[in-house]
Design goal:
By secondary structure, the protein is an alpha+beta fold. About 35% of the residues lie in helices and about 35% in strands.
């Protein structure tokens, strides 16, 4: 993959006030339709007194995405669809957003609603912390105590994440490392142990490990 795959690095919330209506936008990383629905239910429950809770989500990236949006009682095509269009243009995936509206007594009209929901999505995308979703190996290795500190240092230098450590007569080290640096780390371990040790790969998964700084939208 040559292009970065961007996902939320955490939750965020923003609020806009437009002609006395409050628009509270909440977003979170989600990695399945079930997680997206759970987040939508959570926000609906938190703001159950709101006039509308407009849901939008994208699961996955590229050609394998699952998308969903709803106007939640707003005039057809004025809320969910324009918000989804802005989200799709951002390049982010694995994200759920709920735009909550408290009606302030002044009607916005069709064009005003489209702008309000689009602007609410832009605001949350600007505020949202982002990360690069990368292919990772979950690995393990059994070490003698004499190699524990140098291997731990080597792992940390490669920006791998230590998932578990167990200490018996030897040390079991379990890590999560980006696939693109795995071969280098494996080679360094071989040199350090004079060829006696290698990381055993248990599984491969995508994880959001690398923070992305600055606005991406």
């Amino acid at each position: 993959m040559n292009e970065k795959i961007l996902v939320p690095a955490g939750r965020a919330q923003v609020e806009l006030k437009i002609k006395n209506s409050r628009f509270v936008t909440s977003a979170a990383p989600v990695f399945s339709v079930e997680e997206a629905r759970a987040f939508l239910d959570e926000i609906r429950g938190r703001y159950d007194d709101a006039t509308h809770n407009v849901p939008v989500y994208i699961i996955g990236h590229g050609a394998t995405t699952v998308t969903h949006c709803s106007d939640d009682g707003e005039p057809s095509g004025t809320a969910g669809r324009p918000a989804l269009a802005v989200l799709q243009g951002s390049g982010l995936g694995d994200i759920a957003v709920v735009i909550t509206r408290y009606f302030g007594g002044t009607k916005l009209g069709t064009g005003g609603l489209v702008r309000a929901y689009s602007d609410s999505m832009r605001e949350i995308l600007s505020a949202l912390p982002k990360a690069e979703k990368v292919l990772c190996h979950t690995c393990r290795v059994i070490l003698p105590y004499s190699l524990y500190e140098p291997v731990k240092h080597m792992v940390e230098e490669s920006r791998a994440v230590v998932l578990d450590e167990k200490f018996t007569d030897q040390v079991l080290l379990k890590i999560q490392v980006a696939a693109k640096v795995f071969e280098t780390l494996q080679s360094e371990l071989g040199e350090l142990s004079r060829g006696s040790l290698q990381f055993e790969v248990e599984k491969e998964n995508f994880f959001a490990l690398s923070p992305v700084h600055g606005k991406q939208t």
